[in-house]
Hints:
- The protein has 10 helices and 8 strands.
- With 269 residues, the protein is an alpha/beta fold.
- The protein has 2 domains: 1-48, no CATH class; 51-260, no CATH class.
- Helix 4 crosses helix 7 (138-144) and helix 7 runs antiparallel to helix 8 (153-175).
- The termini are far apart.
Amino acid sequence: MQKAPELLSLVHSIIEEKKGYQFILTGSSLRKLKRTGSNLLAGRALLCKMFPFIASELGVDFNIETALHTGRIPLILESANPQTTLVTYISLYLKEEVQEEGLVRNLEDLLLGFSIEVFSKRAKRALSAHPKFYLFDAGVFRSLRPKGPLDNNAEINGPALEGLIAQHLYAWTQSQIEVHTLSFFRTKSGLEVDFIIYGPKGFWAIEVKFSSKIHPQDTHSLQSFKEDYPDCTPLLIYMGDKKLISKNILCIPAEEFLKNLCIDKPLPY
């Protein structure tokens, strides 16, 4: 069996011979290849990123409760015992790669997560400078997060839902031909909007709430952002079952929002 650096060099030479062959090469990380100085086929290959399933790909098989608890990794979804498989996956792959090799600060190199920066275009307020980091899958987040008798469901479910939305929006922005940025908004005074999407297809401000009801204060951040950026489309995603308008903000059930988000289409709002 050839090692990856040798294989890449062989593929390169065959491509240069222009015999019409096509290759599909997959891998979970470029880290080891970069470390060995491998030929990464720059300019000779298309880079495609693969994400956990998004809701629209699963269609009627998507269930938001399942997505929040065990995630959307194909291996886990196909398992007869998803929770056990998820724990095994984390133990055998994530802990071995991350902990034993001391790569805790390089999760993005391993494609295990992603960071989003603060949206600062034409900012009128003093902004926070710290990015936010999300793991690539809500099930992985839930399994890795320490929990015990002092943790309530909201402390776990809220970040899990925010992460699930983040993973879908990241997959959407990363799959567009034209550049679309995924960021968030946070001022030094504490005003925060969970996600900002900005690009040729639109400008959205999105707030996520793990609640089945909309409360008056839930739309405050979106209203303030809308005052600064009148061209944006503000959306509030929550765990209720009805689409409604609250203080001129469109509020959408989370499962409906996720199922309507398709990689090859603009956001439908």
